[in-house]
Amino acid sequence: MNFKFPFWKLATALVVLILICNPALIELALLVDLVGLDVFLIAIELQFVAFIGYHFNMWIRPTLKVVYSTIQKFDPYFFVPTKLIVKQYPQILCHAIPGLMILSFGVLVVPMDSTTA
What we know:
There is one protein chain. With 117 residues, the chain is mainly α. It has a domain at 75-117. 69% of the residues lie in helices and 0% in strands. The protein is elongated and about 80 Å long.
């Protein structure tokens, strides 16, 4: 049984009826009725993804590049591995946590008895 088709027909009808109740939204109700609710929601989702993608590329990525280069200056063992490398060697993710490798090497170098002497 295919429940998808009747669901979208019913959902479109309900949305159109709700939008027709407001006189300012009659045009929007006609548009939703014309293209269907699923296509209308896909169009809204596409606009949202385009908006987020633009702001990610213009603001977030350059900021993260500065943070990444700053962390690499202080922690020489820090790097972000690719997905393929993580699939082969999951333990390499400990390099993606800033300062973890330096902390673990410091624990290895400092003997446990040195604090009691």
